[in-house]
Amino acid sequence: MLGASQVIGANSHGAHIAASAASSSADTADRFERGTIRRIEAKEHVFCDGDPRTHVFRIEEGVIALSKLLGDGRRQIIEFAYPGDYIGLGTLREHIFDAQATCPAKVRCLSAAALEQEASRDAGLALRLYKAVSAELAAARSLLVSVGQQSAMERLAGFLLSLSARASDAEENVVKLPMRRSDIADLLGLTIETVSRTITKLRTMHVIDVVRGTEVHILDSDRLAELAGQ
Amino acid sequence: MLGASQVIGANSHGAHIAASAASSSADTADRFERGTIRRIEAKEHVFCDGDPRTHVFRIEEGVIALSKLLGDGRRQIIEFAYPGDYIGLGTLREHIFDAQATCPAKVRCLSAAALEQEASRDAGLALRLYKAVSAELAAARSLLVSVGQQSAMERLAGFLLSLSARASDAEENVVKLPMRRSDIADLLGLTIETVSRTITKLRTMHVIDVVRGTEVHILDSDRLAELAGQ
DNA sequence: CGTTCATTTGAGTGAAGTCAAACCGAGTGG
DNA sequence: CCACTCGGTTTGACTTCACTCAAATGAACG
After folding, report:
1. Which residue is nearest to nucleotide C9 (CA to C1')?
2. Model confidence over A62-95: pLDDT tens digits?
3. Which CATH superfamily does the domain covering A26-146 fall into?
4. What does the pLDDT read at residue A30?
5. Residues B156, B189: contact at Cβ < 8 Å?
6. What CATH number should be reported for the domain whose range is B26-140?
7. How far apart are the C-alpha atoms of B126 and B147, rounded to whole Å?
C-alpha cells in the first residue's frame, strides 16, 4: 500500500498482546485470552469515562470507538478498535475515555488486575504490553498529524486507505464502513456534512463508488493515495 | 489545577522510566540512567525520521520537539519533551519522527538494544517502559482532542495551562516559552499568525502579560481555565 | 405506509488561513 | 556608539475552507 506510514485511527497491525510466532511464554498469554465473551449492541458502551478500570477487553467482532466527550457535546474519537485489538490498556485506576460500539460487537473480558499482576512477574508479557501500547501510540500520533495538518479531502482519503489496509476480510478494494458518518466526522475532526460532501466529491471524481452508504469500492487506489497526501 | 485532564503536548508527569519510590530493581534502572551526555544546539536534530533507532534519550536540559514533517513542508509537532522525559521509546527499528531542540539542550544517551535486552529479562523494567509509553499515549490523545475539537483560543489557553502545570521551576503563574511561535503553531495545528493574534487577544483581555515574547505571566488563571474549555 | 434515523444537498457565514508589510530586539561591524 | 542586518513577531487586508442552519432525500423497520 502506498504511503504506508499513514495509519488513521487504527493500529498498524493491531495492538496484539498475544505472543507472535514462537514464544517461551505462550501459555501465560493464553491464560489471558480466555475471558468471558460479552455481546455489545450498536451504540452501547463497553465502559465510560471515569469508570474504574477493572477489565481489559479484546475485540472479537464489530468495531468499538474510543472517544472523549467535551462538556458541550463535542466529541473526538481517538481510535476505532477492530477485532484483535485490545482496549482499556494503561496504568490509570480509571478509564479516561468512552468506549462505545459503532455496530453490534463482541468483546472478550480480561481481568486488568490479574493481567498486571502477571506482567509484574513475567517480563515477556510485560514486553508485549509495552509493544501493544507503543503501536497504539504510533496510531494516535499518526491521526494527530492528519487532524492537525491535512485538509478534509486528505483526511478522508487517508482514512479510507487505512481501513482498506487493515480490514483484510473481504475482497481487495472493498472497504466496509461499520460506523455512522458522525463517527467518521468525530474521528477526523470534521462535521458530518463535510464528510458527506467529501465522499460525494470522491464519487463524482470516480475514485470510489459507494453502495448502500456503508460499502466503499475503491476504483482508483493510486489517485486515492495521491489525494491522501504524503 | 482546574480541568486537570487536559494535558497538551506534554506527559502528565513525564514519561519516567526510573523506578518511583521503593522498587526491587532500582539498581537495574540506575544502570540505564548512566549514559553519555550530549549537548544539542537550538534547532539541531537529536535524531531524524528514518534514522535507525539506536538510542533512547532522556532530556536533561532544554526542550526537544518531536515532529512529523510532511512532503510539502507542513509540520506537526507531536510533543514537547521536557527534562525528565524520555524520547525514542518504542519497538520499531527506525525512528518515525524528527526530534529537534527548540532551544539549547542536553540529553543523556542510553543504548536502545541494551535497554530492551534487559527489559526482556527484568519484568519490573519492562513494566516501567509500559507505563512510560502509556503516559505518552495519554498525552498524545489529549492533544488530539484539542486539535480535533477546540478553537484557537481554547487550544492556546490549554497549552499555557499545561505548561504552567508541568514547568514547576520558577514562580507560580510564570510560564517560560522556550520555543518559537512556529513551534507552538505546529503543535496546536494553527499558523504563526493565529498564535500571535490569540496571544495578543489574551493580553488585551488582561488574562496574561508577555515579557520579551518568551515569558508569560498568568494574571487570571481562573479566566484562562474557562477559556481553555473543559 | 408512515415513522424514524441517517445521509445528502443547498445557501450563507465565519474562524482561521494567506499574503504582505511593519516592527522589534539582538548581534555585528564600521 | 550608531547603522545595518537578520530572524522572529506582530499587525493588517483579504480569501477560503469548512462550519452552521435548513430542507430534501433515502433507507430501515414496525
Report:
1. A197
2. 999 999 999 999 999 999 999 999 999 999 999 9
3. Jelly Rolls (2.60.120.10)
4. 55
5. no
6. 2.60.120.10
7. 32
Quote the pLDDT of residue A5.
Answer: 42
Locate the domains of chain B by residue range.
26-140, 147-227
* Smallest CA–CA distance from B75 into chain A, residue: A149
Q: Confirm if A100 and A44 have CB atoms less than 8 A apart.
A: yes
What are B47-101's pLDDT values in tens digits?
999 999 999 999 999 999 999 999 999 999 999 999 999 999 999 999 999 999 9
**Closest by Cβ to A70, choosing from B121, B147, B230:** B230
Distance, CA of A203 to CA of A11 (rounded, Å)? 27
pLDDT at A9: 47
pTM score? 0.91
Note every long-range contact of B50-54, with CB atoms under 8 Å and residues 24 or more positions apart, other chains counting. B50/B94, B50/B95, B50/B96, B51/B94, B51/B95, B52/B93, B52/B94, B52/B95, B53/B88, B53/B90, B53/B92, B53/B93, B53/B94, B53/B95, B53/B112, B54/B111, B54/B112, B54/B113
A149-227: CATH class: mainly alpha
CB B82 within 8 A of CB B179: no
Nucleotide nearest to A193 (CA to C1'): C8
Q: A119-171 pLDDT, tens per residue?
A: 999 999 999 999 999 999 999 999 999 999 999 999 999 999 999 998 766 67
Q: Which residues of B touch A86 (CB under 8 A)?
A: none
Please give the Cα distance from A164 to A144 (Å, whole number): 20
Q: Which residue of A has its CA nearest to B185?
A: A148
Average the pLDDT over each of A114-128, A169-183, B197-211 and give the range with the smallest value: A169-183
What are the grid coordinates assigned to B199, written together?
A: 496571544
What is the spatial distance between Cα B78 and Cα B49, in angstroms, rounded to a whole number? 13
Query: In this complex, is the C-beta atom of B120 within 8 Å of any C-beta atom belonging to chain A?
Result: yes
For residues A20 and A199, the model is more confident at: A199
pLDDT at residue B26 is higher than 60: no
Of A5, A123, A137, the CB nearest to B137: A137
* Domain B147-227 annotated CATH 3.40.710.10: no
Q: Give the closest residue to D11 (Cα–C1′).
A: B197
Chain D nucleotides with an atom closer than 7 Å to a protein C-beta: 8-13, 17-22, 27-28
